[in-house]
């Protein structure tokens, strides 16, 4: 395919960063000093590179038809140069918005949500343990001090959430999408709350249940295996957290999600929603097919909305936003820490995956996660996606403080309680 080779050669010359390509014949294209080489097993796999369809190129790498030679950090510098229009969101046409809405409705039933969550989180606990911190916190860390390790920054994030919610001993606290239980347990151990967590992941449920039993916390900490829509407590909670959860809800179910938060929270109570948001409004997607790759291999059913749409849905449900913080650069650093940890132990990671799936599938999953972690780190660095903590109250007109008669909650409308 001389024409395709010539096209690839021209594209490599126009890149602002050095990339090399090795053809199936063994011929090498690109600069001699390139720190990254993509080796292709057949010529057909070159087409996505020629057309900058990066999601499709990711497919070829996952399926073993192309191989990365070089570091993931260097590869992501190449990806940044290849993404069309510097990653600017692509606005969908009106018919695409209608299709997206209908698609969102269909893929977010209770059964499908459960299957989609388990497809990601139940891959292998030991695999996740290799590159997460010891608490297995699988969400954005908070590097309150630049020199913090990942583990320290994750503890700082857990404490930041607890302080934003102004947790007190004896309060009834619920964690929607509790993961491996880090926030649930931190709130119970350090703030003395009565804590309830829910998850759809069997692996996570088993893990948290074991810790609760080992530490004798059963009287005031519990984990439930259920959908957020099916949680019906005997009375509403005082405080609520939802971390890394609403990305899985779907645009079409956002109203139901926000109504559920309000139902679970007593009047005057506080809720914190910590989640990823799209950078573009109107369902815009990052170019190059990167979002499609993550949907296919990592987070089936995952959907991002803009923070303005999230706050609008929360407001329509009767919740009042009292504080919003963008932690986007913190997530870039978190993801690079995860990526570096995984890259440092690739043989062990593939071995752990192979314990729960066929070897060929384990190899594919590992390549998908390598691209996902580094690709998401790049996306947060470039501002293609963001991470917001949104603090909300369920207003109670009867509640007031001496100096703020219109507070409608215990929230002090000052941030000093958060950072003391």
Automatic annotation (TrEMBL):
<dbReference type="Pfam" id="PF02353">
    <property type="entry name" value="CMAS"/>
</dbReference>
<protein>
    <submittedName>
        <fullName>Cyclopropane-fatty-acyl-phospholipid synthase</fullName>
        <ecNumber>2.1.1.79</ecNumber>
    </submittedName>
</protein>
<dbReference type="InterPro" id="IPR029063">
    <property type="entry name" value="SAM-dependent_MTases_sf"/>
</dbReference>
<keyword id="KW-0949">S-adenosyl-L-methionine</keyword>
<keyword id="KW-0443">Lipid metabolism</keyword>
<dbReference type="GO" id="GO:0032259">
    <property type="term" value="P:methylation"/>
</dbReference>
<dbReference type="GO" id="GO:0008610">
    <property type="term" value="P:lipid biosynthetic process"/>
</dbReference>
<dbReference type="GO" id="GO:0008825">
    <property type="term" value="F:cyclopropane-fatty-acyl-phospholipid synthase activity"/>
</dbReference>
<comment type="similarity">
    <text>Belongs to the CFA/CMAS family.</text>
</comment>
<keyword id="KW-0808">Transferase</keyword>
<keyword id="KW-0489">Methyltransferase</keyword>
<dbReference type="InterPro" id="IPR050723">
    <property type="entry name" value="CFA/CMAS"/>
</dbReference>
<feature type="active site">
    <location>
        <position position="376"/>
    </location>
</feature>
<dbReference type="InterPro" id="IPR003333">
    <property type="entry name" value="CMAS"/>
</dbReference>
């Amino acid at each position: 395919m001389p024409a395709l080779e010539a096209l690839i050669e021209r594209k490599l010359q126009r890149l602002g960063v050095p990339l090399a390509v090795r053809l199936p014949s063994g011929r090498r294209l690109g600069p001699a000093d390139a720190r990254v080489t993509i080796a292709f097993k057949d010529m057909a796999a070159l087409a996505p590179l020629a057309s900058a369809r990066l999601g499709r190129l990711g497919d070829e790498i996952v399926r073993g038809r192309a191989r990365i030679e070089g570091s993931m950090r260097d590869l992501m510098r190449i990806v940044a140069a290849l993404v069309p229009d510097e990653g600017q969101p692509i606005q969908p046409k009106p018919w695409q918005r209608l299709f997206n809405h209908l698609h969102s409705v269909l893929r977010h039933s209770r059964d499908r949500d459960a299957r989609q969550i388990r497809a990601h989180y139940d891959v292998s606990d030991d695999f996740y343990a290799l590159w997460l911190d010891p608490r297995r916190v699988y969400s954005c860390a908070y590097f309150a001090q630049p020199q913090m390790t990942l583990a320290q920054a994750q503890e700082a994030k857990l404490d930041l959430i607890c302080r934003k919610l102004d947790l007190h001993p004896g309060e009834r606290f619920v964690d929607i999408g509790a993961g491996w239980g880090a926030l649930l347990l931190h709130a119970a151990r350090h703030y003395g709350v009565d804590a309830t967590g829910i998850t759809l992941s069997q692996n996570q449920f088993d893990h948290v249940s074991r810790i609760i039993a080992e530490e004798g916390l059963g009287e005031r900490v519990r984990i439930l295996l259920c959908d957020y829509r099916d949680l019906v407590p005997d009375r509403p909670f005082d405080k609520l957290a939802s971390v890394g959860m609403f990305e899985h809800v779907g645009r079409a179910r956002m109203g139901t999600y926000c109504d559920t938060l309000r139902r679970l929270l007593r009047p005057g109570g506080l809720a914190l929603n910590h989640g990823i948001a799209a950078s573009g409004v109107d369902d815009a997607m990052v170019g190059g097919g990167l979002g499609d790759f993550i949907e296919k291999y990592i987070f089936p059913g995952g959907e991002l909305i803009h923070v303005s749409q999230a706050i609008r849905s929360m407001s329509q449900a009767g919740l009042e936003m009292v504080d919003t913080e963008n932690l986007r650069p913190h997530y870039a650093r978190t993801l690079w820490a995860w990526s570096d940890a995984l890259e440092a132990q690739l043989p062990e990671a593939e071995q752990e995956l192979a314990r729960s799936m066929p070897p060929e599938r384990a190899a594919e999953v590992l390549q998908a996660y390598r691209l996902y972690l580094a690709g998401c780190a790049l996306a947060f660095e470039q501002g293609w996606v963001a991470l917001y903590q949104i603090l909300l109250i369920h207003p109670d007109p009867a509640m007031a403080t001496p100096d703020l008669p219109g507070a409608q909650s215990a929230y002090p409308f000052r941030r000093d309680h958060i950072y003391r």
